[in-house]
Design brief:
The chain has 146 residues and is mainly α. Helices cover 71% and strands 0% of the residues.
Length: 146
C-alpha cells in the first residue's frame, strides 16, 4: 500500500529530476510500508539512511540544473533544501539515539514536504526552464508545440 502515488502533476518536465523525484517517493513509500507492517527498527533505519543520502544527491542535481538555467529563485530554493536536509538529519539522529521512533507524523511530514515542495517550489524552476531553456535546435522549449 503506497502512501504517495506518483501523478503526472508532479512532473517538472526534466526527465532526470522526475526520475529522482520518483525514487524519493519510492523511498518514502518503503519507509511507510516497513513501519506499517512492523518491520524492525534496523530495517527502517536503513531505509531512512538511504532517504537521507539520496535526498542529498537529488538536491545537488536539482541545484546544478537551476544554476545552469540561471533560475532567479536559486538561492531561496537552495535554502529550502538546506532546511529540509537539516530536518531529516535531525530525525535520523533522534532515531539513532532512541529519542524518537519512526511514526506516522514523521512519515506524513516527509510525504507532505516532498509533495508540497514539488508542487510549489519545484514548479517555479520548471516553469522558468520551460520558458527559457534553449535546446540544441536553437528553439526555446516554449516555442515547441505542446
Amino acid at each position: 500500500m503506497s502512501l504517495i502515488r506518483w501523478e503526472e502533476r508532479y512532473s517538472v518536465r526534466v526527465p532526470h529530476l522526475d526520475q529522482q523525484h520518483c525514487h524519493l517517493v519510492d523511498l518514502i513509500n518503503q519507509l511507510y510500508d516497513a513501519m506499517r507492517v512492523g518491520k524492525g527498527q534496523t530495517e527502517m533505519a536503513g531505509i531512512l539512511d538511504q532517504l537521507v543520502e539520496y535526498t542529498r544527491k537529488h538536491f545537488s542535481s536539482e541545484e546544478a540544473f537551476m544554476r545552469r538555467q540561471g533560475f532567479p529563485g536559486y538561492l531561496e530554493h537552495k535554502a529550502s533544501h538546506q532546511q529540509m536536509t537539516q530536518q531529516v538529519l535531525d530525525f535520523q539522529a533522534q532515531h539513532k539515539n532512541g529519542e524518537i521512533g519512526l511514526s506516522i507524523p514523521v512519515i506524513h511530514f516527509l510525504r507532505d514536504w516532498l509533495v508540497n515542495h514539488i508542487l510549489i517550489e519545484d514548479m517555479e524552476y520548471s516553469t522558468y526552464s520551460q520558458k527559457n531553456l534553449t535546446p540544441p535546435s536553437g528553439k526555446k522549449v516554449a516555442d515547441f508545440p505542446k
